[in-house]
Amino acid sequence: MDASVAAKWLLPEIHSEAAHRLLGGGRKLLAPDLLGAEVGNVLWKRWRRGELTAETVAAMLRDFRRLPLTLFPSDLLFEAAWEIAHALRRSFYDSLYLALAMSYRCPLVTADLKLWNALRGGPKGPLLLWVEDLP
């Protein structure tokens, strides 16, 4: 799963209920280790806009650390991620998630509509799983 899904575990947003289904069912949840930084940045932006207090953000970050995630070292994905970023004109961040999904032959669950729309009809489309399509 990518950061668009992980953020929904902490913040009540559209697709949050679907994202929570990922946490059940005994699934192994993999993500590049940049996931924490991306989620932290989402929370920081909410704090900057006055939507969250500093204390709430700190509590959410503690909650995030307790989630059943397996984080994979991003630097081991750099070569594959660059190939994807270069070929598909996607951000290096998105490409790290795609590279991990490819290496483990598992779907990349996303709630990122721009990513979903850009890739779903192309060669990497079968790797993507829209968050609302989770069983």
CATH-defined fold name: Rossmann fold
Our Rg estimate from Cα atoms comes to: 15 Å
Structural class: mainly alpha
For the sheet with most strands, the description reads: 2 strands, parallel
Multimeric state of these chains?
A: single chain
Number of domains in the coordinates?
1
CATH architecture, please?
3-Layer(aba) Sandwich
- Strands of the biggest beta sheet: in what spatial order? 1-2
* Tally of individual helices: 7
Q: Give the terminus-to-terminus CA distance.
A: 14 Å
The CATH class, by name, is Alpha Beta
Polypeptide structure, described:
The protein has 135 residues and is mainly α. The protein has one domain: 3-Layer(aba) Sandwich (Rossmann fold), CATH 3.40.50. It has 7 helices and 4 strands. The strands form 2 sheets. The chain has a two-stranded parallel sheet. A two-stranded parallel sheet has the order 3-4. The longest helix has 14 residues. The radius of gyration is 15 Å and the shape is globular. The model has no long low-confidence stretch (mean pLDDT 95).
What labels describe this entry?
135 residues; 7 helices; two-stranded parallel sheet; globular; mainly alpha; Rossmann fold; 10% strand
Summarize the model shown.
With 135 residues, the protein is mainly α.
Q: How are the SSEs placed, and which strands pair?
A:
Elements: H1 3-10, H2 16-21, E1 29-32, H3 35-48, H4 54-65, E2 69-72, H5 78-88, H6 92-104, E3 108-110, H7 113-119, E4 128-130
Parallel strand pairs: 1-2, 3-4
